[in-house]
Design a protein that fits this description.
The chain is built from four helices and seven strands, in the order βααββββββαα. A hairpin with a 3-residue loop joins strand 5 and strand 6 (140-144). The model has no long low-confidence stretch (mean pLDDT 81). Helix content is 58%, strand content 18%. A four-stranded antiparallel beta sheet has the order 1-2-3-4, with no helix packed on it. A three-stranded antiparallel beta sheet has the order 5-6-7. It is an alpha+beta fold. It is elongated, with a radius of gyration of 24 Å. It starts with a strand and ends in a 6-residue tail after the last helix. It folds into two domains: 10-101; 104-174, PH-domain like (Roll), CATH 2.30.29. Helix 1 runs antiparallel to helix 2 (58-101). Keywords: Membrane, Transmembrane, Transmembrane helix. The chain crosses the membrane at residues 36-53, 59-79. This is YcxB-like protein.
Length: 180
């Protein structure tokens, strides 16, 4: 295909980064939910042992159980703060840096064998076999490599609707849909 100019904007780049970050954070939330369920089960077992056994560990139970809850609550708050900090500073900085690096004329070309991005005289070509999966929104496609933050994303605002439709068609043929 003939090269298509890529028109990047901060809003579009930031939106795409937030989408990819949501995928990663949702996996983390599932893992934290499992941890919370395990913690609740351990708490329930401790409470049941306290009330239904002859063992006298009252003071120990009254001290350790609230400490466990406080520690776990602080851990969950820390994870929440870390996610918030990444979203407000790190992703915004990444989007700004990405725009500064790509301010000079980018263009995209793709065939059934590979996809290429050209910046001035520098050409980056990646074969479709190097991508692991794809995911599409109504006006955006995400091409995932081994790590989600290495995803290539293109929207209709950036490359135009006809080029996006062609890219989506080839991605559907060459790549599996990303399983969430």
């Amino acid at each position: 295909m003939e090269p298509v100019p890529i028109h990047t904007t901060f809003e579009e780049t930031y939106r795409q980064l937030l989408f990819i970050d949501d995928l990663i954070v949702s996996a983390t939330r599932k893992r934290n939910l499992k941890r919370a369920v395990i913690f609740l089960v351990l708490t329930l077992v401790s409470v049941l042992l306290f009330f239904f056994t002859e063992h006298n560990f009252g003071a120990l139970g009254f001290i350790t159980l609230p400490l466990w809850w406080a520690g776990f609550g602080l851990y969950l708050l820390y994870l929440r703060w870390k996610t918030y900090k990444r979203r407000t500073s790190a992703l915004r900085q990444l989007a700004e840096n990405s725009l500064q690096e790509n301010a000079s004329g980018l263009s995209l070309s793709f065939t059934a064998e590979n996809i290429s991005v050209t910046r001035q005289e520098e050409i980056t070509t990646v074969g479709w076999k190097d991508f692991r999966a794809y995911l599409e929104e109504e006006h955006t496609i995400y091409l995932f490599q081994d790590h989600p933050y290495l995803a290539w994303s293109f929207s209709a605002k950036e490359i135009g609707a006809p080029a996006l439709a062609g890219l989506k068609e080839i991605a559907r043929q060459k790549l599996p849909l990303l399983k969430l």
